[in-house]
Structures are given as C-alpha cells and as structure tokens.
Write a structure and sequence with these properties.
The complex is a heterodimer of chains A (263) and B (182). Chain A has 263 residues and is an alpha/beta fold. In chain A, 35% of the residues lie in helices and 23% in strands. In chain A, the strands form two sheets. In chain A, strands 2-1-3-8 form a four-stranded mixed sheet. In chain A, helix 3 (73-87) links the parallel strand 1 and strand 2. In chain A, helix 1 (10-22) runs antiparallel to helix 2 (26-45). Chain B is of the alpha/beta class and 182 residues long. Chain B has one domain: fumarase (Alpha-Beta Barrel), CATH 3.20.130. Helices cover 22% and strands 31% of the residues of chain B. The chains are: A alpha/beta (263), B alpha/beta (182). Chain A binds chain B through residues 26-27, 30-31, 34-35, 37-38, 41-42, 45, 47-53, 88-93, 100, 102, 104, 131, 134, 162-164, 166, 222-225, 253-255, and chain B through 1, 3, 23, 25, 38, 65-71, 73, 75-78, 80-81, 83, 103-105, 123, 125-131, 133-134, 147-149, 161, 163, 173-174.
Chain lengths: 263, 182
C-alpha cells in the first residue's frame, strides 16, 4: 500500500488536467505543468511524488463477524508501515512531540476503526503530508451562524492557509458531531473521488458554493495567483448537539495519494 | 507573456540576484545546502553562541527540504513550507546568506531581512518531489546526520526550476509590492 506514494490518484490527476486547460494565469499554469510532469516522472521511475510521504493514516472498516488472530490489528498496520516505508525509501517523518526524537521508521500510524456489518476488512491508506495538515482548522460555531457561518469559516481557513498547503487542494469539511468527530469526518472526505458530489443534495450544493468562493480568492496553484485554488470541496455531516455547530476543515495538498485494500 | 528562464549559478553573485524580479523563472545550477526545522534551530543556536556554522553561508543558498533517501540516493526532494523557518531566516540573511528556497509566503521580518541584505527568496514547486530529485546530481551529509531527513546536506543541482517569490526590493508573487511603511 505504501507504493501509493509513487503516484497521485487518477481522479485528482484528471481534475488537475482539466483545471490546467482552463487556467488563465501563466504562473499558475506553469506550476500545474510542473506538477503534471512530476506525476508522470514519479510514476515512471517509481519515485515518491512528494518527499513528504506523510504520517500514515488508515481508515479501517472492520466487519464485526471478522475475527483477527495472532496479534493486534494496529500492530500489524505499524509493521506494514515500518516495512513499506523502509523498503521504498519513504521518509521517516514521525517523532515524539516533546523530545522531537524521530522514531526512525514512520510509526506509529494513525488508525481509525469503524465497525460495520459483514465479514470483510476494508482498509484505506492516506499518507498525509503536513504542509496541508498544519492548515487544518476546527470552528465551534453557534447554531445561529448556520449555513452562512459554515461557508464563511471554510473559505477563511483556505484563505489563511494561502500557498502553504500546496494548492490546487481538495478541501475536506466535517460538519456536526463533537469536536473530535468533526475533525475525523473532515479528513475522511479526502478519501472520496475528487469532484464527485455528495449524495446529499443540500451538501452537494454547499460544496459547489464554497468551492466557488474559495476559487474567487485567486490564491491559485502554489499561491502564484490563478483561477483554481480548490479542485473540489467535499463535505460530510453527522448529527450534533442542540447547542453546537462544529465545522472542521482538513486540506489535501496536490500530492493526493491513496490506496485501498479489501480483505 | 514573459517566459524566459534566467540561469543562475550557486553560490550566488549578488549583482545577478539584484536584477531578479518577483515572478521571474530561474534555473539554479551549483551548490545548495539543505536545512529545515531542527537544523535551523541548531544553526541559529551556534550563531547566538558566536560559534562557526558547519558551512560558510556567505553568498550561499539554503534549500528547505527533507528528502526521501534510499541507499544514499535522493528519491524525492521538493520544498517544505518556509514560514516555519521565518524565526531563523533573518539572522542568516544578516550574516550573508544570499537565498532561501522553499514554498509559501514569509513573515514581515523575512521581507525586511531580504530587502536589507539584498537577498532573494525562491519558491520551488511544492509537491514536485520527483522532479526536484532529478535535478540533484550529488548529495552528501555535511552535519547533523542523526537528524535523518533533517540533516544538513550539501547538494549539487543542475537546472533546478524555481520562481523568484520575493525579490531584493521586497516585492513578491504573494503580496505584490510590499508596504515597508518607509
């Protein structure tokens, strides 16, 4: 799965190509050309598209009829990260937050487990670079701020991030739940096909409106100024408390890498 | 549309740097030094103690990068986000550093340091790690090997594509002309 670091997802690449064709700013078009050239080179020579091969994030959907024997699932995932990152020369970027001492093998991974029906085990791997992760935001809005508040704060998060998260980006938004739930929900939206609208009509409309507001900022590819800052906005929601309107933003940089396995 | 590419050698000639304008496309060939978060903390601590740096920074360029390396070979080497080095950069420009290379906008203090020293800040294309690795013709660790990806390396690069992000007048691709209030 760690070989996902050698490429960008087909849906991101398709969205980038289409944005490149429409780009009116020469500087942004140049940056996009370089990214397309980089993606080709990385795929051909099996090289990491970006040197920030991320912290390894996994979303696991564990069928509750599955029985795992011989050890902890999280230990097995860490072992996979250790071997995969090591064998492929992927960067060891994980360290103790206080001592800043590197663990040396990019472990531990961040693992989110969700119980589902059935007897299969689905694992999504999202190597998350921190140029974009550092631009994450959580807003605990008041219910009175409503839909307009959501639009305002997501756009503000992207504006404040500027060139830092390596645009063109995909913006993951999690609305509702608790503070922690909103953040996980926002990140989970990055697993979706780039540009495929939400199944929920209201969310799909909001996705389009926010994307248009973001692109009106004209941050552009690499912050050089241009038409496309966000290729897509993906929103997920979860019921929340009568007192609350949590909104979390998690940004995916142009090195959009994913892998999926179903066991 | 101006698309001419300016070729520069590193270490840099200050007269050549002074001619650059924000938005210019440049290809750098020559020697660059890598340093990011942890290495900068150490470099600036040395300066504060009045001790020598592991390399002479006069006229040099520092590339903010923590590469992917396998068996000594650089596999991927795109820029990291520069603002994290903003706390350290002015002290280095003040002591003769000619250029930094990274991605994203800088703090007001860095704009001022660049203008004062006649330096430049180049933006490399964030995310284009494989492409930049292909520009590296030689790499060796110079200091802080124990920092792994954060070690200081001496790179030899050929035709490394960058954009002038902040020029020596303090104009930038991010903010246009910078208001120094003077």
């Amino acid at each position: 799965m760690t070989e996902a670091c050698f490429g960008v997802t087909p849906s991101y690449l398709a969205a980038l190509r289409s944005a490149r064709e429409k780009e009116s700013s020469p500087a942004a078009a140049y940056a996009m050309d370089m990214l397309l050239q980089n993606a080709r080179l990385a795929q051909k020579n099996r090289l990491p598209v970006c040197q920030d091969t991320g912290m390894a994030v996994f979303f696991v959907r564990l069928g509750q009829d599955v029985r795992i024997e011989g050890g902890l699932l999280t230990d097995a995932i860490d072992e996979g990260v250790r071997r995969g990152y090591g064998a492929n020369g992927l960067r060891a970027s994980v360290l103790d937050p206080i001592t800043r001492k590197n663990t040396g093998d990019n472990t531990p991974a961040v693992v989110h487990v969700e119980l589902v029906d059935g007897d299969s085990l689905e694992i999504d791997f999202l190597p998350k670079g921190f140029g974009s992760e550092n631009m994450s935001k959580l807003y605990m809005l008041t219910p009175s701020e409503g839909r307009e508040g959501i639009k305002r704060c997501v756009t503000e998060a992207v504006r404040a991030a500027g060139a830092n998260p390596c645009p063109p980006v995909v913006v993951g938004v999690g609305i509702g739940g608790t503070a922690d739930m909103a953040c996980v929900l926002a990140k989970k939206q990055l697993l979706r096909e780039v540009g495929a609208p939400s199944d929920d009509e209201e969310l799909a409309a909001l996705e389009t409106e926010i994307k248009d507001e973001i692109n009106a900022l004209r941050i552009g590819a690499q912050g050089f100024g241009g038409d496309t800052t966000a290729l897509a906005v993906h929103i997920g929601k979860y019921p929340t408390h009568i007192a609350a309107l949590p909104v979390a933003v998690n940004i995916q940089c142009n090195a959009a890498r994913l892998a999926k396995v179903v066991l | 549309m101006e698309t001419k590419t300016i070729r520069l050698n590193a270490p840099f000639d200050s007269a050549e740097l002074a001619k650059l304008k924000a938005g210019d496309r440049v290809e750098i060939s020559g020697v660059l030094y890598t340093a990011r978060d942890a290495a900068h903390k150490r470099l600036v601590a040395l300066l504060e103690k009045g001790e020598p740096l592991p390399f002479d920074i006069d006229g040099q360029g520092i590339y903010y990068v923590g590469p992917c390396v396998k068996d000594g070979r650089i596999l991927s080497a795109g820029p990291t986000t520069s603002y994290r080095m903003d706390a350290y950069a002015p002290a280095l420009y003040e002591r003769g550093l000619a250029a930094t290379i990274g991605k994203g906008d800088r703090s007001e203090e860095v704009y001022r340091a660049i203008k004062k020293s006649g330096g430049v800040y180049f933006a490399a294309i964030g995310g284009a790690g494989a492409l930049y690795a292909a520009c590296v013709t030689d790499a060796r660790i110079l200091a802080y090997e124990e920092l792994g990806a954060e070690a200081v390396r001496r790179l030899v690069v050929k035709d490394m594509p960058v954009v002038v992000a902040i020029d020596s007048n303090g104009d930038s691709v991010y903010r246009g002309s910078f208001d120094f209030g003077d």
